[in-house]
TrEMBL record:
Protein name: PTN23 phosphatase
Keywords of the record: Coiled coil, Cytoplasm, Endosome
Pfam families: ALIX_LYPXL_bnd, BRO1
Protein source organism: Leucopsar rothschildi
Record-linked InterPro entries: ALIX_V_dom, BRO1_dom, BRO1_sf
């Protein structure tokens, strides 16, 4: 796998700058940066100097020195203006992340961790209401995409370095985890509406990569099983890798040639591994092949992280060009308070993320999706593929009658041919019997000269026609059997839609299922409330600016002021703690409901299987109609031709038999 062609990566466009009353030369150099690492350095320096400027001059929203700042929003192309220097900082930070993503997508394939760090800092330290492309949902999506691509790069290097199979499997599994998070965001209706037309392209690529890297993970789990001489496990892991790769191939339609090359290469590797492993196990090792769900799942190993951004790092920003404007005491105190807020947010987020991880793993293991847990909606209507067939037959009302008539005509011609051939055979047998009697009477002497020669030719030709008839008779029988098999379905499809719907199996609702859906709704309600409380906390922290209070507070009173100010978050923290504490009870109730749901799940699966089988059978009957008509016509043509030949042969047989009888009479009269 170390030689596998590289998969393409997603990179983000840079925002375009508009109006900002700042030094024109500085502004131009900061927003029109080269697309390389020097451009990243320029953006970092500019970001730092903006931070230093903001700490001394009141240029924030609603402050005395605020000036209009204009940037173009990525997805709509519209100019967005805010009188807030933090908007300028946010846009520069966005461009820093976008530029790193662009560089990471190039051949060097580095820099994704830097991009993730820039977007994380932007999400956690700036308002999300500036523009759509910097909303919390979009930034979270960008972060997961960049972390996934960073982990993907690490996976490439691990395979090139021939790292241990189990480690490579865990690294690949983590790629899948990051992309699953990104895919959840892409499937969110609000995020999709924000992204616009690129959402479908990103979603297709990410979904394909989820299956692709899941296949890579199971390939290396199979390699580990091979190293441990667990040959049954090796077969099932390679089989799973092959299944997942086939799913990736299905999702890769329309992707560039580089993707197709990578998939073909990987198919050669996995297909070869699976075929070899299965053959060896079948003929040599004879180990039982376990079910995949009985084996321990591959836990991802997150070996990449969002690199932190420090806007005031002198090694990055260079000298503070505004150092002499105002004292830094108030700014330093504000920075300390910001760190206290950040610490509070980190503590809360650690608890939230831990609970979310448990919840996600639990729901994945349960394989319960509130939207599809029962699939009852599918039974409320006739599927489109079946509606299409019903519609087609509705404009061809004579379909069944035409088929029956065609088969009746075929049967008639078939019967006529059979009767003619039987009569010929009877004539020949009767002639042969008369010939034997004559020979017995005359002492078994050879036939006298002048006996009619036509009977041998008739007999030979009759045998040929009988052989053709016998072969065609089997085909004719099969054709009638097929017609009888499909005739009822065709009548159903051509009848009222209510009858078609009634022919499709439907499940019955149960109290167990309703209870399970109610608890699943409770899980979603808990998720939504948690996200809402987290968002409220973030927004509250973003708006919490106590600089004006710090200016008039003695340094010795700073700690007390911080403690008093941080109390405003206590109520939100209580709500979050209650939400997190409720998770254990909700999951316990869900576990109990799921145990009871097992029988219902099996029944629903059986109904769904019957439903799909019925639909497929009806569609197959419709699609078989044209073939039946064609074969029926071919049968009629064949037997019509054979009928003509048999009729002529019958006339010849009659004439030959009459001539033979006359010849025998002559011999008897001698």
């Amino acid at each position: 796998m170390e030689a596998v062609p590289r998969m393409p990566m997603i990179w983000l466009d840079l925002k375009e700058a508009g109006e900002f009353a700042f030094n024109a030369a500085v502004k131009k150099s900061a927003v029109s940066v080269p697309r390389d690492f020097e451009g990243c350095s320029t953006l970092r320096k500019y970001l730092g100097q903006l931070h230093f400027l903001q700490s001394r001059i009141p240029m924030g929203h609603g402050q005395d020195a605020a000036v209009p700042v204009t940037w173009t929003e990525i997805f709509s192309g519209k100019a967005v203006t805010h009188e807030d220097i933090k908007y300028e900082q946010a846009c520069v930070l966005y461009n820093l992340g976008a530029l790193h993503s662009m560089l990471g997508a190039m051949d060097k394939r580095v820099s994704e961790e830097c991009a993730a760090g820039a977007f994380t800092y932007l999400r956690d330290h700036f308002p999300h209401s500036y523009s759509v492309d910097m909303s919390h949902q979009i930034l979270s999506l960008n972060i997961n995409l960049m972390l996934g691509q960073a982990q993907e790069c690490l996976l490439e290097k691990s395979m090139l370095d021939n790292r241990k199979s189990f480690l490579v499997a865990r690294i690949s599994a983590q790629v899948v985890d990051y992309y699953k998070e990104a895919c959840r965001a892409l499937e969110n209706s609000e995020t999709a509406s924000l992204l616009g037309k690129i959402q479908k392209d990103w979603k297709k690529l990410v979904q394909m990569k989820i299956y692709y890297f899941a296949a890579v993970a199971h390939l290396h789990m199979g390699k580990q099983a091979e190293e441990q001489q667990k040959f049954g496990e090796r077969v099932i892991y390679f089989q799973s890798a092959l299944d997942k790769l086939n799913e990736a191939i299905k999702l890769a339609k329309g992707q560039p040639e580089t993707v197709q090359e990578a998939l073909r290469f990987t198919m050669d590797v996995i297909g070869g591994k699976y075929n070899s492993a299965k053959k060896d196990n079948d003929f040599i090792y004879h180990e039982a092949v376990p079910a995949l769900d009985t084996l321990q799942s591959v836990k991802g190993a997150p070996l990449v992280k969002a690199l932190p951004v420090n806007p005031t790092d002198p090694a990055v920003t260079g000298p503070d060009i505004f150092a002499k404007l105002v004292p830094m005491a108030a700014h330093e105190a504000s920075s300390l308070y910001s760190e206290e807020k950040a610490k509070l947010l980190r503590d809360v987020m650690a608890k939230i993320e831990a609970k979310n991880e448990v919840l996600d793993q639990f729901m994945d293991s349960m394989q319960l999706d509130p939207e599809t847990v029962d699939n009852l909606d599918m039974y409320n209507h006739i599927p489109p593929v079946l509606m299409e067939k019903c519609a087609a037959l509705s404009v061809r009302p004579d379909t069944v009658r035409n088929l029956v008539q065609s088969m009746q005509v075929l049967s008639g011609v078939f019967t006529d041919v059979e009767a003619s051939l039987k009569e010929i055979r009877d004539l020949l047998e009767e002639d042969e019997a008369q010939e034997r009697k004559l020979q017995e009477l005359l002492g078994r002497v050879p036939p006298a000269p002048g006996s009619p020669p036509g009977l041998a030719e008739v007999s030979k030709e009759c045998s040929k026609y009988l052989e053709l008839h016998e072969k065609a008779s089997f085909t004719n029988t099969e054709l009638h059997r097929a017609m009888n098999l499909h005739l009822g379905n065709l009548r159903l499809l051509g009848g009222p839609l209510e009858q078609v719907r009634a022919a499709l199996p439907t499940p019955t609702l149960s109290e167990v299922l309703q209870n399970l859906k109610r608890i699943l709704a409770k899980v979603q309600e808990m998720r939504d409330q948690r996200m809402s409380l987290e968002q409220q906390l973030r927004e509250m922290i973003q708006k919490d600016d106590i600089t004006s209070s710090l200016v008039t507070t003695d340094r010795s009173e700073m700690k007390k002021l911080f403690e008093e100010q941080l109390k405003k978050y206590d109520q939100l923290k209580v709500y979050l703690e209650q939400n997190l504490a409720a998770q254990e009870n909700v999951l316990k109730a869900l576990t109990d409901a799921n145990v009871k749901y097992a029988a219902v799940r099996k029944a629903l699966a059986e109904v769904e299987h019957k439903w799909n089988t019925t639909v497929q059978t009806l569609v197959a009957s419709y699609e078989a109609y044209e073939d039946l008509m064609k074969k029926s016509q071919e049968g009629k043509d064949f037997y019509t031709d054979l009928e003509g030949k048999a009729a002529k042969l019958l006339e010849r047989a009659r004439a030959a038999c009459q001539a033979s009888e006359a010849h025998r009479q002559q011999l008897l009269e001698r």
